[in-house]
Design brief:
The complex is a heterotrimer, with 2 copies of chain A (about 200 residues) and 1 copy of chain B (about 260 residues). Chain A has 11 helices and 6 strands. With about 200 residues, chain A is an alpha+beta fold. In chain B, helix 2 crosses helix 3.
Chain lengths: ~200, ~260, ~200
């Protein structure tokens, strides 16, 4: 019925089925005692192809691999009781701002939102494991800056931050630049404005 | 049946925070001044870049007025925003030449840019939330067996260590035999005999060292000295000799008592 | 690459993957809103056939279905990491005593060694597979007696225990020190004791 899967493919399949957490290529190679990461990568690709049409998919999120159910079957698997409780609107905005601007300080988040962000909002995102403190910005006051985590990528089905919806368009439109920068650009009001905008987006990327 | 796959529980919303509500306006999802403006901007259904800030400010102020009429408690920042927007509105209406820096156009532009950015974030936030999310749209393995790494210690030793250890045990615990060397000594009896014999020769004082065998080894000499001393004491006690010494560690002298020969 | 799995097959695959417990045909049928149990059974059979050669199997136990690791890959779930450690001096002495005197009880080992032997020392030797309990001595208290194993002979390159050098050979090799040196060794006792304590604590860790 099927072609026989290769030994490494079977081993990866069993390991990832049994794993409680997504695993990196390195972790898989170590666990299975395979020396060549390229070999593991190739077998993962074959396994991913095998599952592409099935009810369960093999996916890579932030460099870590796991099995999950096919998205089109969501309606069959959703329980009566919603498992993911709704995030408050404040929290979703803060999460989006962190994801699209990371790393970003709380003051920067607030300046974008124009509203004070209650301490609880960041807590909620950190408790979910989606956001983490990522050091301090070396400016006066040394504010803590925040960034997203691999769990965030996992949860939202993103292979990497490059997959964030619309991030390229936002960057191209300069909407990820601070207001001050945009102000300056707008006030200069020159014919080659379009060129400048392009320049800035390419710098930012 | 998939409860453990959903660690993502959130409090329903920030607006449910009871103590924040007193100074917090949350109507139809409005959360703050920019939010409110943004919502008003959206209701005009125009591009934020094209929107009339003047019209927007008008609507905002009307809203705040109405909210005040509804006896809602307004947050301080709403009022600050309202005051600022009222100023902005008046400045926009004034003739250009009377304006200060920064110009109301600049302020209006800044407001527009901020609204644009927040609008963009709200839009992508909604797109993000609509993605296939774990625990809502896609599900992880319900009962993973789990991977475990057991550490196993492999003990190593070798033949030499083994027999060396045994040798040490045997050596350490072997019955111990003590040998005492047969040393040359002069017994008390022979010393008594010797001292008595020599005392018989003369009545003069003699130093006790003169009683020692002249050619003996140092060990034997020390033994002989000790024995001769004890023999001298014994003979003195029996009344056959007398002892004298000038001071501590001075030569010890012995001589026969005259009448002892008869005794 | 593969034939497209049927819709019901995919649904069953996803459901059983996400299920926390094995599920009966009835529960599956109810969950998926399928009226015909026979249909579910047929799809399960197809799914089972699909997985037969893979790293994960679909199995039925007591009327309930679930995925589990292929039996030949079960070892992947419990990976052993080997760590080579040298036997402590205390343990080597005990091992030597057992090898030369077997079978011996612990009290006998102690009386030969002249030192109390921590319980952990015998455990280590049994863990190493070199020593095994060999019954009980039929004296009051019926103490357990210990003997060496074939693994022991193997590790030390011995054909049999008779190959162990005798006392005379040890003496000839200078391994049985004469009395004076034994005295010296006895006098040295304190530093040795400290060594042993170290050894034994590392065994325990």
């Amino acid at each position: 019925m099927n072609t026989q899967p290769a030994t490494l493919e079977r081993a990866l399949e069993a390991t990832l089925f049994a794993a409680e957490e997504p695993m990196t290529v390195e972790a898989l190679a170590t666990h299975l005692g395979v020396l060549e990461h390229a070999e593991v990568r190739a077998a993962l690709a074959a396994l991913q192809a095998h599952y592409i049409a099935r009810g369960v998919h093999l996916v890579e999120r932030g460099g870590r691999w796991h099995f999950e159910t096919a998205p089109d079957l969501a309606h069959l698997l959703r329980r009566e009781k919603e498992q993911v409780r709704r995030l408050s609107r404040a929290a979703t905005e803060v999460l989006a701002i962190i994801a699209y601007h990371e790393p970003v300080s709380r003051a920067e988040i607030e300046s974008i939102r124009g509203v004070q962000t209650s301490a609880g909002t960041l807590d909620v995102l950190m408790e979910a494991g989606w956001v983490r403190p990522a050091g301090r910005r070396e400016v006066p006051g040394r504010p803590v800056i925040y960034a997203t985590t691999p769990v965030f990528l996992d949860h939202f089905g993103l292979e990497s931050r490059r997959d964030l919806p619309g991030i390229d368009e936002l960057r191209a439109a300069g909407l990820l630049d601070p207001v001050d920068e945009a102000m300056e650009a707008a006030m200069r009001f020159e014919p080659d404005e379009a060129d400048e905008a392009d320049d800035e987006s390419s710098e930012a990327s | 049946m998939n409860d453990s796959a959903q660690p993502f529980m959130f409090p329903p919303s920030d607006s449910a925070r009871p103590d924040a509500d007193a100074l917090y306006l949350a109507i139809d999802g409005w959360e703050g001044p920019l939010d409110l403006l943004l919502d008003l901007a959206r209701r005009q259904k125009v591009d934020l870049r094209q929107i009339s800030i003047l019209a927007l400010v008008d609507q905002y102020l009307t809203y705040i007025e109405r909210a005040g009429a509804l006896k809602l408690e307004l947050a301080a920042d709403y009022l600050v925003m309202a005051a600022w927007l009222a100023y902005l509105k008046s400045a926009l209406l004034l003739p250009k030449d009377e304006q200060e820096d920064p110009s109301p156009e600049e302020l209006a532009l800044r407001l527009q840019l901020r609204l644009q950015r927040l609008g963009a974030m709200r839009e992508v936030a909604a797109r993000l939330m609509a993605r296939d999310r774990i625990g809502r749209d896609v599900f992880l393995r319900g009962a993973p067996e789990g991977l475990r790494t057991d550490r196993k210690i492999v003990w190593r030793s070798d033949m030499f260590s083994l027999i060396q250890a045994y040798g040490q045990v045997k050596a350490r615990t072997a019955p111990r035999i003590y040998h005492v060397a047969n040393r040359p000594v002069m017994t008390l009896d022979s010393a008594l005999e010797r001292v008595s014999a020599m005392l018989g020769v003369t009545l003069e004082w003699m130093e006790i060292r003169d009683f020692l065998p002249p050619h003996a080894s140092p060990e034997l000499k020390r033994s002989a000295l000790a024995s001769s001393f004890v023999a001298a004491l014994e003979l003195t006690k029996r009344g056959r000799a007398e002892l004298e010494q000038d001071g501590a560690f001075a030569p010890l002298r012995i001589r026969r008592l005259k009448d002892s020969t008869s005794a």
